[in-house]
Design goal:
binds 1-O-alpha-D-glucopyranosyl-D-fructose, Oligo-1,6-glucosidase, domain 2, alpha/beta, globular, about 25% helix
Length: about 575
Amino acid sequence: MTFTVDDAPWWTRAVVYQVYPRSFADSDGDGIGDLPGIIGRLDHLAELGVDVVWLSPIYASPQDDNGYDISDYQAVDPVFGTLEDLDKLVAGLHARGMKLVMDLVVNHTSDEHPWFVESRDPSSPMRDWYWWRPPRDGMAAGAPGAEPTNWGSFFGGSVWELDETSGEYFLHLFSRKQPDLNWENRAVRDAVYTMMRWWLDRGVDGFRMDVINLISKDPALPDGVVTGGLLADGSASYVCGPRIHEFLAEMHKEVFADRPERLLTVGEMPGVTVEQARDFTDPAREEVDMVFQFEHVGLDHGPGGKFDVRPLRLLDLKASFGRWQAGLADVGWNSLYWDNHDQPRIVSRFGDDGASRRESATMLATVLHLHRGTPYVYQGEELGMTNAHFTRFDQYRDIETLNHVAIARTVGTGSDEDLLAGIGAMGRDNARTPMQWDDSPHAGFTTGTPWIEVNANYPSVNAAADRADPGSVFHHYRALIALRHDDPVVGLGDFTMLLPEDEHVYAFVRRLGADALLVLGNFSGEPQGFDVGDAWTFDDRSTLVLGNYDGTDVPASELRPWEARVYRRSA
Ligand code: TEU
């Protein structure tokens, strides 16, 4: 059942690059990145060698959640450009042998989408396109606790918003400007499938599906269990809900099945388990090609949630990745990521963004990319871009962060110092500061005033500097991507974790027939000895194919601070 060199899908050898358009490149000086800006930077992506671009939402949107609140799925927001610009972007990518994957945000729309505007009318046939419910039995609309369920939203507060006109509440798992679509309604599903076909007909090559495992809700909408605070976790009623597999199989049949093109589908799935992911990505089931799971990016969350940050224990990371590698070994496929627009920068999170920035960024990249799965690079990760290191609340823009701060202040939890530490470590704006192109003002991102501050380290951390330096993070990413393209072991080799109990050294072997790779990474700023025993023989058939230190004087059984090494052997 496992893929072979002859029948493996193209994406087993591919690397995807995520562009967050708002922060990538601004062509018109309004301080916000746009499509012509991206088109002007395609050579950077071609030089890096990536195969696919995933474009975060560019659709018409009130921008309450930076475009993840869509008011027209078939229009480009004027802040980003026009549909013609989008066509030019597709053509520019295709001309360079790259594909374009769009962000598909269909768990919810904007409250300004015409579907929702129409749905506000209780007598409209579109009323049922969203989740409308009366207040709790015997309670008046708007009374404290009258919300139809006790669920808390991802962005703080209740998932229910009262519409004064009808006296009913609508469901929103995210912000109140992101009402959830009712996937129980066949007309909703058909409208989504029609829209998806329209984009594929226009030439795009697939979709990254935003929170797609939340689209099926238990229509009974039962209360959740309150574990702390006032609101409950309702996720048992909507994470991989009752009809999720049916909906994804239906989507596949309606949208993808009759297209011979080489498309890519990846479902973003918070809370997905290995067993569920195996089903979602089993090719025989025809649902999605791969999923984004969240286990490894939750390992440093404390009991108080993501802003209650804890140091990572390397053993936890190895146990987690090891379980996903084993669980999707013979059926299904992993996607591999450290960063995206929702996560802090990996070099600041699990590495050292000070003196060892280059070494730790390249070590982290090496370890991630050489697992079995399709790697995703988030813009700036290939430069070792760091967290924003903001020191004031007014530097933040993200709705999740701002709501968190507002709620903490209302409830009276946490000093300003603690709050700033939490959002400084984990806030989504860490990933959203502008792309650092060069050492000119605003890092070459814009000639105007950027919508969010540029990271102060741009004079030394930028694309121009990295492209000119053969020892840079950028050139290391290039080498990793090239290795995946050139060496079938990277794409298709099996995976064996070594040294699961070592608290500092990450080690594994990939094997395909008589060929093998040994990958070693030191997750610390001190030298670390290692002994992989019989798992690898360092004889003259074992050659060092990639590392992040200069020179040939390689210590045999010790890794230098943040060192990564990749050995190869063949029969
Ligand atoms: O994110 C879904 C998600 O579960 C989280 O990553 C979320 O962003 C948050 O960080 C939880 O703490 C997706 C998008 O990637 C995100 O940008 C959107 O805000 C969200 O869905 C709603 O569309």
